[in-house]
Each structure stands twice: as C-alpha cells, then as structure tokens.
C-alpha cells in the first residue's frame, strides 16, 4: 500500500494540471501534434504509394533517382531536414515557410520515402507465379493488379505502415526546434513554470504526455487490427 | 549559456547551408518604418525560462524579457508577436529574418557579436556559488581541494578549470541533477549563473549564495539582425529613455522580485539606461 505521504506527493505533483488552463493547454498541444502528424501521414500514404510503384519500374534512370531520394531521406536526421526547410530555404532561396509548413513538408517527404520503400517491398514480395496464374486465366494486366496483386500487397502493408505512422507521430516532438509549440514543449513550459514550487511535477507531466501519445498510437493499432481482421474474413 | 549537442547539430547544419549558399544576399532586416507599417513587431523570447521568458498557466507570455518586449511594442505603437525560441536558434532566427528582435536572455559574446548586432544592455550576469549554511563558501579560494558541482558546458565549468585548477569539479549533464547532488552533500558547493543560484537558494532553506558575483561580468542585450542600424539605433534610444524613468527596476519588481526575495538587490542584476 502507498503511504499517505506518497499519496500527498503524487497529488501535489499532479496539482499542476489544475492550475489555470494547464491541462487544456496540454490537450491543445496534443491537437497541434495530431494535426501535423495527420496531414503528413495522409500525404505520405498517398505519395508513398505512388513512389513505391515508381520504384518497381524497370527503368534504370528512374530507379537510380528513387534510390538516391530514399537514401537521402532515410539517412538525414529529421532534425537536420527540419532546419533545412525552416532556415535553409530562407537563407538560400529567400523562401520563408512557417514552422508548421516546414514540419509538414519535411514529414511528408520523409514519410513518402519510407512508405514508398514499404510499398515497393510489398509489391515485390508477391511471388511471380501469382502474375503468371493471372495471365493463364486470361486477365489483363490491369485486372491482375487490381484483383490479385493489390489485395495481397495491402494485407502486407497494413502492419508495416502502422509502424511508420506511429513513428511519425512520435517524431513530431522535434518540431519545437522550428518554433512550433506542440504537446512536449507545453509540457516543458509547465514543468519550468513550476520548477521552484512543485519540483516533482515533471514526472506527472511526462506521465500524462506518455498516456496521450500512447492513446493516439493505440487508436492506430486498433484500426490496424480491425483492417487485418476484415481482410481475413473477406 | 549551455552548449548542448543541439548547438553542434545547428553548427553542422549552418556549415552545410554555407556550402549550398549560392546567392543568399542578406536583407538587412525590417526598418522601424516597415515594422510600424506592418503593425506587428516579431520578438523572439524563451517560452520555458522562468522568470525571464516563460508561458504561465493561462498560456500568456510572462517574465523580465517579456515585460520589456511589451514596452517596446507599446512605444512602437504596434502589436507584438512572440516567437518562441530555443537557445541554439537565437542567432539563426535573426539571420533568416524570422524575427525583428531577440529578447531571450541573450548574453553578449564576441562570437555572437560577429553575427548579430547587440543593442545596449538591460541586465548583467556573473557566476554565483551556493553552499550549505553550515560550511558557507564566501571566497573562491576556500574551494581549493574541495568538490564543486557544476553543469557541463556552462561558463562556470570553463571559469573554474582555467582560474582555479585545484578545485575538484563534479560535472552533471542536467541542471536538475546538480541540485540533487548538492542536496545529497556530494559536493561542497554548486556554481552556475548567479541568477539561477539566487533563485534556487530562496526556495531551499539551509543554503545561501556566499559568492554572488564571480568571473567576468556578462551583459544581456537585445539583438537585431546584423546591419539593421535603423532598428538598433531606435532600441538604443529607447533603452536610454527608459533609464530616465528607472524602467528596468520596475521590471525587476514586477517579474524578478518574487523569485529572488525581498532582500535581493535589484542593482546586482539590473542595468539601467545601458550604463554598467
């Protein structure tokens, strides 16, 4: 059992959420996080699928370009990409993006590259005999893709892309470095604001942020398992 | 004053853009006239450095720097748009014209002065040393052979390494750890910016700041983009004019007094009219 002192200490730590609008501020910060992540994820899924299909094209030149883009996006730390979009574009071309726009741009470009590679992998993992069987029963290329390849690809893609989506959501905590105030930054503001009076509140704030991230990512996991179940039934 | 990996990353990135930097003809930044015309002045402040620049529980910007920023906006006759910055980005936001003025506890150093233009100072900082009342340290010489707690990358680290090599240093990455170490008695004293130790000692009975001004005196100044003389001159005139009404003492009373205590001496931190 917890001693009453421990309970006191815990309730003191959590008391910061009842000061002013602190809790609402944290929720609003989470909405900023979700907003940036959601726009980037949707764009990434769309462009990533196209990019993945492009990567399976047998033209050497296109393949090389895709490879360079993918490796560049994968190797560059997202923080450096953010700096390049926010400060670099202004320095070099005089284009000044807002912190939010720079974030969406970077996460979309990164997500497109990673998603593209997942799509490529899923497409190529469909064995050649599937194509051959399709041809044997007289389906056109379009029909083969639509009825045979696409359903199998999607099934393979769902768990992989959910991984990417949750990673993107968590990586949005970097946007604070280009001046966007999201949930982690607001958490830090609350901690710093009470540093001298409630020094223990950091554990409470980070606990709440943990559950916020967990909840958002968990929804995606749930969706993934629902989609997978449906596919099995279908 | 803390250098972190962030600074290194940013430096690496700046070097990278310098390579690709073909034609970045740096615009001089907005003039006072342009700011007035746009009806908004963009000022970079900290959002989590209480009591200098922070956001309170109602989501409103507060602090010593913010109090000054409000006055600047009022005297320019415009609204103020606060842009939250991280320490490592303070030079960058000016160079890329994301803000007009930086008011973020920005210590003037020769390196920084090459990249941005500093106006007259409005605050000063030095090192402070806090120690337990039982064995109060009042002179740096007393520390010889004893253990001093410091945070890595701060000016305290360089100062003691260079000037008092006989002091044993116990280094930590995080501020929070340094305080814990002092409370646990793992060192005889702790040194960092005097503003920081003064505020901490108030909240922690049994500890006193025995040395409140050590090392070279640094000043905190507003900064504008390099070459923006128009805004720089306006700011300097503004700081001189504010000195006549003892504005920064009023600022101290409104924002810092509660943190540093009734007995604290405003003149230990405040610079009035830009004169040290």
Describe, in plain words, how this protein is organized in 3D:
The complex is a heterodimer of chains A (234) and B (276). By secondary structure, chain A is an all-alpha fold. Chain A has a single domain, classed as Orthogonal Bundle (MetI-like fold), CATH 1.10.3720.10. Helix content of chain A is 80%, strand content 0%. Chain A contains 9 helices and no strands. In chain A, helix 2 crosses helix 5, helix 2 runs antiparallel to helix 8 and helix 5 packs across helix 7. Chain A is flat, with a radius of gyration of 23 Å. The model of chain A has no long low-confidence stretch (mean pLDDT 89). Chain B has 276 residues and is of the alpha/beta class. Chain B has 2 domains: 155 residues, D-Maltodextrin-Binding Protein, domain 2; 93 residues, Periplasmic binding protein-like II (D-Maltodextrin-Binding Protein, domain 2, 3-Layer(aba) Sandwich), CATH 3.40.190.10. In chain B, the strands form 3 sheets. Chain B has a 5-stranded mixed β-sheet. A 5-stranded mixed β-sheet of chain B has the order 10-9-11-8-12, sandwiched between helices. In chain B, strands 2-3-4 form a 3-stranded antiparallel β-sheet, covered by helices on one side. The longest helix of chain B has 16 residues. The radius of gyration of chain B is 20 Å and the shape is globular. Chain B starts with a helix and ends in a 16-residue tail after the last helix. About 3% of the residues of chain B have low confidence. At the A-B interface, helix 4 and helix 8 of A face helix 1, strand 2, helix 4 and helix 8 of B.
């Amino acid at each position: 059992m917890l001693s009453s002192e421990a309970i006191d200490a815990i309730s003191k730590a959590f008391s910061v959420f009842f000061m002013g609008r602190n809790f609402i501020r944290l929720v609003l910060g989470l909405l900023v996080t979700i907003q940036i992540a959601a726009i980037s994820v949707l764009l990434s899924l769309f462009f990533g699928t196209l990019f993945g299909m492009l990567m399976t094209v047998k033209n050497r030149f296109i393949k090389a370009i895709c490879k360079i883009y993918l490796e560049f996006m994968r190797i560059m730390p997202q923080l450096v990409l953010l700096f390049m979009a926010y400060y670099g574009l202004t320095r070099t071309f005089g284009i000044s993006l807002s912190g939010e726009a720079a974030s969406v741009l970077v996460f979309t470009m990164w997500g497109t590259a990673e998603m593209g590679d997942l799509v490529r992998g899923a497409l190529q993992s469909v064995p050649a005999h599937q194509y051959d069987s399709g041809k044997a029963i007289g389906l056109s290329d379009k029909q083969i893709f639509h009825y045979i390849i696409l359903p199998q690809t999607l099934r393979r893609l769902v768990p992989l892309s959910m991984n990417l989506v949750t990673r993107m959501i968590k990586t949005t905590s970097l946007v604070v470095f280009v001046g966007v105030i999201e949930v982690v930054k607001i958490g830090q503001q609350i901690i710093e604001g009470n540093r001298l009076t409630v020094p223990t509140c950091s554990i409470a704030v980070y606990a709440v942020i943990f559950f916020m991230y967990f909840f958002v990512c968990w929804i995606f996991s749930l969706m993934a398992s629902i989609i997978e179940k449906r596919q099995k039934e279908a | 004053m803390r250098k972190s990996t962030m600074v290194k990353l940013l430096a690496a990135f700046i070097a990278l853009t310098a390579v690709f930097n073909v034609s970045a003809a740096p615009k001089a930044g907005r003039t006072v006239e342009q700011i007035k015309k746009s009806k908004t002045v963009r000022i970079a402040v900290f959002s989590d450095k209480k009591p200098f620049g922070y956001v309170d529980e109602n989501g409103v910007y507060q602090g010593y720097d913010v109090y000054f920023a409000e006055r600047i906006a009022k005297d320019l006759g415009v609204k103020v748009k606060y842009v939250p910055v991280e320490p490592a980005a303070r030079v960058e936001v000016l160079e890329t014209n994301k803000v007009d003025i930086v008011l973020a506890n920005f210590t003037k150093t020769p390196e920084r002065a090459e990249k941005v233009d500093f106006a007259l100072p409005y605050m000063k900082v030095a090192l402070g040393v806090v120690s337990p009342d039982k064995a109060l340290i009042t002179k740096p010489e007393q520390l010889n052979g004893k253990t001093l707690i410091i945070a890595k990358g701060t000016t305290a680290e360089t100062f003691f390494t260079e000037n008092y090599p006989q002091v044993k240093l116990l280094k930590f990455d995080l501020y929070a750890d340094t305080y814990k170490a002092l409370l646990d008695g793992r060192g005889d004293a702790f040194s960092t910016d005097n503003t920081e130790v003064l505020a901490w000692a108030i909240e922690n009975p049994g500890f006193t700041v025995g040395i409140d001004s050590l090392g070279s005196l640094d000043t905190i100044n507003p900064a504008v983009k390099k070459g923006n003389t128009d805004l720089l001159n306006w700011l300097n005139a503004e700081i001189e004019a504010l000195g006549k009404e003892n504005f920064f003492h009023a600022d101290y009373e409104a924002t810092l007094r509660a943190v540093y205590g009734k007995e604290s001496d405003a003149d230990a931190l405040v610079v009035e009219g830009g004169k040290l």
